[in-house]
Design a protein that fits this description.
The complex is a heterodimer of chains A (444) and B (295). Chain A has 13 helices and 16 strands. Chain A is of the alpha+beta class and 444 residues long. Chain A is globular. With 295 residues, chain B is mostly helical. Chain B has a domain of 36 residues. Chain B is built from eleven helices and two strands, in the order ββααααααααααα. In chain B, strands 1-2 form a two-stranded antiparallel sheet. The chains are: A alpha+beta (444), B mainly alpha (295). The interface between A and B is large, with 54 and 42 residues.
Amino acid sequence: MGSDTTNRMIRAQSYAPEGFIALDNSALIYPPTEAKYNANTFRISMDLKQEIIPQILELALHNTLERCSYAKVSLHKGFFWYYLSPNHKSPVLHEEGSYPSARISFKDNNGYLLKVLYSKHRIALECFHALTDGSGALVYLKMIVSEYCRIADISDVSFSGALDFKERPDPQEFSDPFQHFYDKNIPGSPSTGAAYHRKGSGGYDDRVKVISAMVDARTLRERCRERGYTVTVYLSSVLTMVLQQFQKEEVPQQKKRKPIKLSVPMNLRNIFHFETMRNFTLFAVPGIEPALGEYTFEEILKKIYLDMSLSQDPKKIRSQIKRNVGGERHILMRFAPTAIKNPLFKLLSNSLGDDLYSAIISNLGYVKVPEELESSVSRMDFYLCPGQINKVSLAVVGFKDKVVINFSSFFNTDTSLERMFCRFLVEDGIPVEVSTNRTPEYKE
Amino acid sequence: MAYCIQCGVKLEERARECPLCQTPVILPPGMERGDSEPLFPQPLPEKGTEGINKTSKGIIELILSLLVVSEITIALTMWFSGNMAYSFIPLFSTAMAALVIAMALVAKHTYVAQATIHTILVSIYLLGIDSIDNRFNWSLIVVGALVLLWISAVFTTTKKAKAHPVLTTLLLMASILGYIVMINLLVAGSLTWFVPVALPTAGVFFLGVALFFLMFLTRKRSRIPLADLVFFNLIVLFLTFTALDIFLTHYRMGLWRLNWSLSLFSAAMVLTILLVGVTVSRRLRRYFTSQNRHS
């Protein structure tokens, strides 16, 4: 690392002094916009074949939080910004409920932004987005599970990508990466226009209804390889194709059709090779313009691939970081009190976020399970919380020989998006196995 | 183990229908449904959680923030300009304006809920600004009118009122009389003109309305023609005005005679004759309606 980078790192650290830890740039929007239909949470879980013993899990959670002291924090509302500060209360374990990614009640969670749940065979981690992103939370889950397995005498192994319990925390682990890569001398990237939003049918409420589609990883990869694209591009294209079909039925007049754009989180750790336990994600917004005509699946694949490749250009990402951090550093933003900023964030967040895309699809990637644990891990899940504008979200995670595609939805009865998506996969030769928490399944 | 015949997906062993297309799972005879572990151990709750969404929350927070800023600004301005004694009305008005907007957003978005809340808030506001000299001068009359308006235009639309039409009509009549009593008491300090003028005039009005309702109810056809409604209104109103004139003249001069309503009464007679003619004579009715158009 050059001296310039070292200086930047010191600056990034001094930005987060002990006792008063500033939120990272992309976390700023989450606390003020937390409301009904806007939980700003996500969940990652791992199911073991062994029965979970809560006392051991509590110990594993305690040890993980001791190692990652920066996660032992609670959220506070300051005069100018929300901030994190060390939390000395003990973490709370919760029993698994009926749906994932609900709003976290910080009071019932002793102020923690991480919520650990357990059921007979599951260890689940729900996280408020202000603390970290999916990749960060995955590291916490890996650490909790490996610590649990060690204490429970299942196996003494560690997952690749997890932090070492014996090492002291590196200051970089909790420095704000966005401040680190901010360059005031480049122009900020322009914002885009509104996208198509599916109306859906029937009512909706804030219970997260889940349809989980499990597919064989090898078959899925084969189909993607045949076409020459990645799993993320393939699944994003299927979603785009389905949304195109919906809009075609809803808006018969072609020229009135709005662009279909997806929000696909990109893990910037892989692009900038900067390991951090805070949020380090920006969104690629690939999409099509149905006003220009109907796209075939091959055309959609090509368009999504090109858009995503362009979005991953580090120069373009730096420009996005410039826009976001530049906004945070603007004098009006810095000196406006939270009481004024909070409602404005709430009112403007739709036009700066949810309005710009038609759906969100997040691929956490393939989680390599250590060989010793392969026989113990039976399932992995990743869930996002849906929103009021885009009421269905997709989260994808791969483990062992499976890929799990989880649809989280606010719709009470409308499952047409899920149906069309799964049927497309089946017709493309990918067998799909579905499970759900939707009520009829539980009726006797 | 079952597959959906519509979607082609593999279902949970315990599934009774496909979650994607709701096609029921029909097992062959002799095959039993499996008992796989559900995705989540608890069934979904009956309904979602309480709370308001991001946008409503944002608007309420913004109103509250702007309210605090406005109140501080007004208080400081009044203080520096030496007019602190007169600061109640601007401070109170600003607070009430914020409260009205916030309540409009928070309350149920139905006619009855919104109209009720706004009637209460406007009444509080009027009483508040009238009470600046520690007594009520004019606001009670206006608030009384608002209450009367609420009973006649809001309460009558509720399910409760529609279920008991007779009681509702009696309540409406009692509130009209009560409001007149209140005006008499507030203006004169005791009941002066209420018994000799207002009570008999109201009696004539209610009697007229009751008679016409009886007439409409005994009709075979449920639809009431517009001409009949106009006719009914004219008769009841002219009768009421005439009664008011008679009782008022008697109260003021001690004479039983018509005063200013004589010309009104003559005009009413001409109109009444015309309308009776239209109602009774088909030929006359046609002259004003289809006859003209056809020719």
